């Protein structure tokens, strides 16, 4: 009996260590993400991307639409916002996380918002 319990505990620990758990975002999280994405001093996504109801959008980057379908792996989208140079060394997208332009929490709020598009 004890051996089985230890096996279950080890399996649970292994699964929790490899699979990130994301809590369902609140409307406040989504609103904060949109605020960050639209802010000209924070995320400034509109400088390069067309998205949602944004005004004065850029066209350097791709349109930010259908984001959950395009990036079903949330961690991959996080990594691209954190530092796009990992995937495309010639990108003009700032490495928002690596250069501490946005915190991990701020990037996650932006992703919460992008997943509504």
Descriptive overview:
By secondary structure, the chain is an all-alpha fold. Helix content is 45%, strand content 0%. It contains five helices and no strands. Helix 4 packs across helix 5. The model is unreliable at 7-19 (pLDDT under 50).
Question: How is the secondary structure organized here?
Answer:
Elements: H1 2-18, H2 27-38, H3 67-70, H4 74-82, H5 104-114
Question: Largest sheet at a glance?
Answer: none
Radius of gyration: 18 Å
Oligomerization status of the protein chains: single chain
Determine the mean pLDDT: 86
Helix tally?
A: 5
Strand content: under 5%
Q: Please report the total strand number as a whole number.
A: 0
**Overall 3D form:** globular
Low-confidence residue ranges: 7-19
Q: Please give the share of residues in helix.
A: 40-55%
- Give the H and E element order: HHHHH
What structural class do you assign from the helix and strand content?
mainly alpha
**Could you give the distance between the termini?**
49 Å
Salient structural properties:
single chain; 117 residues; mainly alpha; 45% helix
Quick structural gist:
With 117 residues, the chain is mostly helical. It contains 5 helices and no strands. 45% of the residues lie in helices and 0% in strands.
